[in-house]
Amino acid sequence: DRIKLVAQDLVAHFEQRQEVMFGKGMIVAMSRRIATQLYDAVIELKPEWHNEDLKKGVIKVVMTSASADGPEMAKHHTTKEQR
Question: What is the pTM of this model?
Answer without folding.
Answer: 0.83
